[in-house]
Each structure stands twice: as structure tokens, then as C-alpha cells.
Amino acid sequence: MQPSDGAVYQRLFAQVRQQHQQCASAPPWYSVPAHSTNFGDRFRTDIHGNLLQQEPIIVLHETVASAQSALNFFQTSHPRDEDQASYHELITLNGWILHLVPWSKRAYGAGNSTFGSETVQTNPRLAPSVNNFALHISLETPPQGRHNGQHHQGYTPAQYQALGWLIAQTGIPPARVTTHAAVDRSGERIDPRSFSFATLNRYWQTDRPC
């Protein structure tokens, strides 16, 4: 396997950051780096040497915990593969965007997963996943939803606004925005619960010109 320089994703991030600096209505965006054990390189080839050319996708998640609890986990060293996890961005209840992992790097947001027929195996000891071509964005779960149930009251308008703004600036098309539940092959992931694409689309369209 050949590590990628992640140039496509780095250029995308630089573009969005520039738009953030120029947009008066953009949500607050802070850098809160995850520990380096919780993310890795994107690869140009899979374990069989096949060249990887997937276009980026966005995978939506929820924390099922407070943002602070999630940050504590991501900023802790996890040497074992099975303990490692991260998102690129986390959106708090008040609409702040927390930047955790460089977009040029592979966040460990999904295990055994596929987007349609698109999936990549980069570790012979682990199942194929979408991580190599995904941007993982998580929403902080509201306090009443921090349980294992199927539903909760949903996310705040500030979260939808921040998420809509962020996705709009990437230029990634709606057809390549998905959820952890949709890409998961295990049948165990159901996040983000109680998520409304209709609500997201309203903010997405509103914020697109910015």
C-alpha cells in the first residue's frame, strides 16, 4: 500500500477554511486536535495494490455522549487498533464546529462499512471500510438522548445550521452525503438517530452562497 499525501482533501479543507474567514455568518470553528493514535494516513492503493480513486463522501454520526466526553476519548492515546476512533469534525449543541482530525488524514469513524459498492481495505487485519475516502462529521447528542434507544428529540437548529454551512462549502453533492447507519455492514450502528435530512437541506440551501 502507498500512503497518500491527502492533497485532494487538504485542498478541500483549505478552500472551506478560506470561505469561513470570509463569511460573516459562518459558525464558530475551533481546532481541538485528536491524539495521533486515533487517525492515520489516507492510502493511494489498497492491500492488493489497486489504485484508489473514490470521490469524497461525508458520513454523519452522533456522539451518544457529551461533546466533552467525546473529546476526552479522542484526545487519549489508544495504541490498540480496536480502541481507536475519531471524526474529522464535531458539532456541539450550540453550533460550534470542533476540528479534530486533518482532512488529509483518515479518521477512524466507521468499521466494517461500504457506500454502495465503494469500500477499501487498508489493513489485512481489519474489515474494509469507507474511512479512506470519507469525511466524518458528528453531532453532539442532546442530554436526553444519551442512551441506547432508537430515538431522541433531535438536534438543535444551531447544529443543523452549522452542519448545513459546512457541507455546503465543501461542494460535495447531496448524493454523497450519508449516515453511519447507512454505511455500516454490521447492522449495529443506528446513528445519527432522529436526524432530519429535510431540516439539513433547508439550511444547506440557505448557506450555499456563503
Can you put this structure into words, describing what you see?
The protein has 210 residues and is an alpha/beta fold. It has one domain: Peptidoglycan recognition protein-like (Lysozyme-like), CATH 3.40.80.10. The protein contains 5 helices and 8 strands, in the order αβββαββββαβαα. The strands form 2 sheets. It has a 6-stranded mixed sheet with strand order 1-5-4-7-3-8. A two-stranded antiparallel sheet has the order 2-6. Helix 3 crosses helix 5. It is globular and about 45 Å long. The model has no long low-confidence stretch (mean pLDDT 94).
Core attributes:
single chain, 210 residues, alpha/beta, Lysozyme-like, six-stranded mixed beta sheet, two-stranded antiparallel ribbon, 8 strands, N-acetylmuramoyl-L-alanine amidase, cell wall biogenesis/degradation, N-acetylmuramoyl-L-alanine amidase activity, Amidase_domain
